[in-house]
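Okay, any thoughts on this one?
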Amino acid sequence: MQFLNPCNDVAFKRIFGSEEHKRITISFLNSILEYTGEQAIKSIEFLNNEQLPQMIDKKDNVLDVCCTDQVGNRYIVEIQVGSVERFDKRMVFYGAKTYSMQLIKGRPYSELMPVVTLAIVNFTMFSKKKSYKSIHHILDTKTHEHDIKELTFAFVELKKFKKKEHELVTDEDKWIYFMKEIQKQDHVPAPLAADEFKEACHVAERMTWPEEALNAYEDAFVRETDQEGGRKIAHKEGKAEGEMNKTIEIARKLLARGTSIEIIAEDTGLPVDEIKKLS
């Protein structure tokens, strides 16, 4: 038995964005967002995941999963494998845009419904936070009262989740374990052998995928690998350039103090010709 990686963009949409398997998405959202009782999501309707620009030259976006629940609240669910600079800003942009796009010209603001943006990331977003999950609301800075409920942002950092199979207790534990570990398994783990978890494992099983979908999965994997490689190269080159700039600045200061070119070359490693150009 072989499972595909749910963190792959194509696999994620197939598992959590399918009309046929809505109960997977409902269970996932209720677990991660800690919705119970009257607040629990009971049904969802998938929405168009394409955010078209509302004005010329503005940015358009394609969301991974976008849906609404039985009372009209909207949910954006995004998967992000490679580290992206200021990914938090991207999520705020997605949430705010989804919120504003609800309103048709001439309709009252009262028709706007809350938007929850949930991101599952496979990198560290908040280095100072120990917990793998954080939920962010708009709060009164003095009383911490949650008066404005229009926008909520939730983040799950998979790298911080350390629980093993025998430690899985809550549905949240099981869903995050599924996201992070299922592709490494050759069987359905016991904690995931029932209900929506079993269904999700079945959808993730490679043998259930048609060839066309597998090709799209592989293309997404290659694309993400190329992007990650490009980010690492750019980071390495940027770091090297920054170190060189610091060295040149040190050489300039030493020249200004009257230090000989030969000594500067020895101390900084810069070629004599380059130091002469600086002078």
Remarks:
- Residues 61 and 68 are 18 Å apart (CA to CA).
- The first helix runs from residue 9 to 16.
